């Protein structure tokens, strides 16, 4: 209308979740069907899917991780979580370029029917430490991770990872604390891997770590960026810790070329790793 108004482009960077289902975990003392047995504590899982008339299966690693986490607190006999199979999350700002301004979000999905588990780069610092900064050191604690589901706790008084950072389990139970944090269950690579390594190699072999030692429950805010990973089809079937290959995202291929054309670049100078380092400061 030729008035003095400025068009401002806005885009929400909040998280959107779908594939909602409620899971009630009940502690059992006998072997039953659909039972997870962790350290001598058994939980049977009752799943109710929302807006779905077909039968779906919950990711086994997801159920195992949640049950195993709660098994260490023997006084927990019954608890409920709300799970999600799909999340639309904002990409970490330090990994974005100017030409990424439109694609500020990425979709992550888990589908048991098609055997699909998306991957991401995630910050893998132990939640129970005295350090309360979620981001911590971006370069040292970055790791490829396979996603197995998203969820939030629905039962008050549970010793959740977030609440345990500030209070002990007995206080949380007594005060019936409620945790509204959205979590993700991931199984990670055996070792830390930073962006600089991907920038210089472009494709790197990775191997999932031990199920008990490398399966974590983290806040979704720990997810840094999506990662394209494909399976190593040369491995034997039934491998307990399967191997994969991780690739540098296509929009960051120029950083790989930077290192190839300018081999004099020293670690931490040039490329995406430099962007992350500046952001961390």
Characterization of the model:
The strands form two sheets. Strands 2, 3, 4, 5, 9, 10, 11, 12, 13, 14 and 15 form an eleven-stranded antiparallel sheet that branches. Strands 1-6-7-8 form a four-stranded antiparallel sheet, with no helix packed on it. About 6% of the residues have low confidence. It has one domain. The protein has 281 residues and is an alpha+beta fold. The chain has five helices and 15 strands. It is globular. Helix 3 packs across helix 4. The relative contact order is 0.15.
Quickly list its features.
281 residues, four-stranded antiparallel β-sheet, eleven-stranded antiparallel β-sheet, alpha+beta, 33% strand, 5 helices, single chain
Give the arrangement of secondary structure elements.
Layout lengths: L15 E3 L2 E8 L6 E4 L2 E9 L10 H12 L6 E7 L1 E5 L14 E7 L4 E2 L1 E5 L18 E12 L15 H6 L8 E6 L6 H7 L1 E5 L7 E5 L3 E9 L11 E5 L5 H9 L9 H10 L1
Please count the beta strands (DSSP E, at least 2 residues each): 15
Q: How many angstroms does the end-to-end distance come to?
A: 45 Å
Structural class: alpha+beta
Helix content: 10-25%
Shape: globular
Number of helices: 5
Mean pLDDT: 78
Biggest sheet descriptor: 11 strands, antiparallel
N to C succession of SSEs: EEEEHEEEEEEHEHEEEEHH
* Rg on CA atoms, Å: 21 Å
Question: Runs with pLDDT <50, length 5+?
Answer: 5-14, 133-139
Could you say how many structural domains there are in total?
Answer: 1
Strand content: 25-35%
């Amino acid at each position: 209308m030729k008035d003095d108004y400025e068009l401002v482009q806005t885009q929400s960077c909040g998280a959107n979740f779908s594939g909602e289902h409620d899971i009630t975990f009940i502690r059992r003392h006998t072997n039953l069907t659909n039972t997870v047995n962790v350290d001598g504590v058994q939980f049977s899982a009752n799943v109710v899917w929302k807006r779905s008339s077909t039968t779906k299966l919950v990711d086994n690693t997801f159920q195992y991780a949640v049950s195993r986490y709660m098994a260490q607190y023997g006084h927990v006999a019954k608890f409920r979580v709300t799970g999600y199979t799909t999340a639309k999350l904002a990409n970490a700002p330090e990994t974005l370029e100017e030409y990424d301004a439109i694609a500020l979000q990425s979709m992550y999905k888990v589908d048991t029917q098609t055997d699909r588990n998306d991957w991401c780069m995630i910050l893998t610092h132990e939640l129970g430490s005295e350090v309360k900064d979620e981001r911590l050191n971006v370069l040292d604690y970055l790791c490829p991770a396979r996603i197995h589901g998203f969820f939030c706790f629905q039962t008050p008084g549970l010793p959740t990872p977030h609440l345990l950072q500030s209070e002990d389990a007995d206080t949380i139970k007594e005060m019936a604390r409620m945790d509204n944090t959205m979590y993700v269950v991931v199984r990670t690579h055996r070792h830390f891997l930073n962006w600089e390594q991907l920038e210089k190699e472009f494709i790197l072999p990775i191997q999932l770590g031990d199920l008990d030692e490398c399966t974590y429950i983290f806040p979704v805010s720990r997810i840094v960026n999506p990662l394209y990973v494909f399976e190593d089809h040369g491995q034997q079937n039934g491998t307990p810790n399967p191997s994969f290959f991780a690739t540098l995202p296509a929009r960051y291929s120029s950083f790989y070329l930077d290192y190839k054309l300018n081999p004099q670049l020293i670690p931490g100078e040039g490329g995406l790793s430099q962007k992350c380092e500046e952001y961390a400061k």
